[in-house]
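To assess whether the prediction recovers the assembly geometry, we first specified each molecular entity separately, as shown.
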Amino acid sequence: MIFLGLLDILGPVMVGPSSSHTLGAMRIAKFARKFVATIPREVAFLLHGSFTKTCEGHGTKKALLAGILDLSYDDERIAESYNLARQQGLKFTFELADLGDVHPNTVRVRLFSDEWHEIEGCSIGGGAIRITKVDEAECELDWKYDTLIVVNRDEPKALMKILSCIDANIANPYLRRINVLQQKAVTILELDESKYDAEKLRKLDVVLEHYFVPRDQLLGR
Amino acid sequence: MKFSELLEVSRRANQPLHEVVLVQQMLEDGSDPSETRAKVRFLLRTMLKIVESNYGKCQQALVGLCGENAHLLSKHEPRFVGEFIHTAMVAALSVAEANASMRRIVACPTAGSCGVMHGVVYALARVAHIEEERLVDGLIVAGAIGDVVARVASVSGAKSGCQAEIGTAAAMASGMMVYVLTRDGEMSCHAAAICLKSLMGLVCDPVGGFVEVPCVKRNATAVAVAVSAAEMALSGIKSVIPFDEVVEAMAKVGRSLPEELRETGLGGIAATRTAQRLLQGFMNRGDTNEAIERRNNSER
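The predicted structure of the complete assembly is given in tokenized form:
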């Protein structure tokens, strides 16, 4: 017996016209924005599949940009996100691309703040998304959890050391080797709560970088 | 869980259906029923506010294939539909056109079909003068109706056609209307079943894949179907086929729809000569986002 969310059916509050091509796209960009934790200086969107064909009539590009600007999903200024981005000095470009054998509604977001980062995700319907790539690491995040992303040395006991900093139930763990030569790996942990020791994590010798993306809040859910 | 099981619990425990739904939700995800109720109340108030700020207004739709329908219908006289349906239809068009113009809406059950529920809720509040808490009860029951469809079939046009979007929206609206007027879960269920049967097989065929033609007007006609089904149920007419079986049938119909008729913009209305011509015009107009934006800014 599964009872899906009553509030998922009755909501959320959003700006139209499409939950998959507007809201979902914006959520992917917003994940990227929360990942870098600042308004980037430059952003490039690579749109794939159905996004390339119907982005204009769905306001997909405006929604993507609004996500980078961290507007809320029901903010009618989403329609004016181009102007808002220019006012804030954010450089942005859109490209239509073939990203290979991925979901038809996929977008790759490349952002530059201090360095370049890359987030790829797809909008799978009804505003639900799947983040499929964080920098070089492949994953499948639905952003229903707080997400901790650690770039770590690819060496014995690295994961054990990282886990020793976490005091929350782990919903889904990912560990991906991204560069054998540089001995780098990415660890992604979806957490039930945001309980972890950021200071201790930062000081670990195996940790090169770490990022925290708090879970998404949809209005009315 | 089937809808009939919810009704059975309601009957045996002698508890109103909306309370059964909230308790069921709590059993599934641990949510506090009074908190869920407060969130539903927030959504209700938001829907009413959205209708009020857009009622009968002209809009600048993204592609420009709609935008004046709500305004035209609001001014038209003499009227052959009653005040209730007229108000609900104008509200449905207003919100569906607002959605097509990147304005704020409640995606109930989806963005493209959101006009139906906004419309019927608004008419119940402003024409039938139903008090707020009764409307909240009704919205909870509507949520349960939509939820059953979402699990057994889907509420995605891309997956099951427009019957899953507009059809579900209308079934929810119809059930909600009967529930706020009678508090009779069984009767609400008949309304939802009659309504869903009437819209079964409806294909998802938006011109160019955009949520404008025929989506916006379907929101308004679906209001009339929803209210008709509700009125039939209120008179004591029953659906011969139970709601749960209607939903199963709808799921099967959805699976048998070819891809052209599932939100691809390749079949049905989208494949007509006029649709192709309009689309070509849209593409040739140099409608990059900048062009659309320039037009929107100059006209807004």
